[in-house]
Write a structure and sequence with these properties.
This protein has one domain: MetI-like fold (Orthogonal Bundle), CATH 1.10.3720. The protein contains ten helices and no strands. It starts with 11 loop residues before the first helix and ends in a 9-residue tail after the last helix.
């Protein structure tokens, strides 16, 4: 008697597991979309319900910002050029802050004396308002691009130092003992154990610092206007001349840039450690 092969039928758990990715994707797309819709609704409510026509320039409607600023080449071109300047300052400041912060975190984890010397200054840079340091930075370094970079470094430095130090200090002692038994040299211990183990914490610090670096670059643009204008320079100019449509459009572009930088580092963290560490799993 010939045997017949019945077609495979998915069981209930298999069918449920196949639907889960689609449901998760739908939730991830629905919630941000709903948030954007509610934000636009609140924007229009304030523009048309709470502001009279003669005061509507305080918050022009979204479609006017789109048509009169973002879609107008004469208005949006200077914003994009200024945003490119701010992006260069952000990249340079974040690079310098990363080099200084990671090195300081490593040295602090190796020596209690270095930790006691460096950590108070790191905390001081974090708690002192950067606006209070702006006049001093201008006197010392002038009012050009270098001072903007200094402000960017100051704001972005603290989370990199603290997260690097925390990651280096959190390594399992038994792993250190294993490298000691293998008579590993200091550089080999650093490259093969400490930096890979501290990488999730370092990337977390970079993710936090990336957003703060954008803020620092924009603040530097506002107060150090010599040289090429950044997006912060345009924000100050639009505010002084009451160009509300351009002001809102420039704020939108600056916010979009900040989100893009933060998302880039979040993606980098997920790709680097997502397969073996819980910090990159989401």
């Amino acid at each position: 008697m010939a045997s017949t092969t019945l077609p495979a039928v998915k069981t209930a758990p298999e069918a449920t597991s196949a639907k889960r990715p689609r449901a998760a994707w739908a939730r991830r797309a629905f919630v941000p979309s709903l948030s954007i819709v509610l934000g636009l609704a609140a924007w229009y409510f304030v523009s048309y319900a709470l502001l009279t026509p003669d005061r509507r320039f305080l918050l022009p409607p979204a479609h006017e910002v789109l048509t009169r600023a973002l879609l107008d080449p004469e208005h949006v071109r200077p914003m994009l050029e200024a945003l490119a300047v701010t992006a260069r300052i952000t990249a340079l400041g974040l690079t310098v802050a990363t080099l200084i912060g990671v090195l300081a975190g490593i040295l602090m984890s190796r020596s209690r004396v270095v930790e006691q010397v460096v950590f108070p200054y790191a905390v001081m840079l974090q708690v002192v308002p950067v606006l209070a340091l702006v006049p001093l930075i201008g006197i010392w370094f002038g009012y050009g691009s270098f001072s903007r970079t200094v402000v960017c470094v100051i704001i972005a430095l603290f989370p990199i130092i603290t997260n690097t130090h925390f990651g280096m200090r959190s390594i399992d002692r038994s792993l250190h003992e294993l490298f000691t038994l293998g008579r590993a040299s200091g550089p080999r211990r650093l490259l093969s154990l400490e930096l890979p183990a501290a990488l999730p914490s370092i990337l977390t610090g970079l993710r936090i610092a990336s957003g703060q670096a954008v803020v620092g670059a924009i603040i530097g643009d506002m107060f150090f206007a010599q040289g090429e204008p950044g997006i912060g320079t345009l924000l100050a100019a639009y505010q002084a001349t009451l160009r509300s449509h351009d002001l809102v459009a420039a704020i939108f572009l600056a916010s979009l840039f900040g989100v893009a930088v933060f998302s880039l580092f979040a993606l980098t963290s997920r790709l680097a450690v997502g397969r073996w560490h819980s910090s990159g799993a989401r």
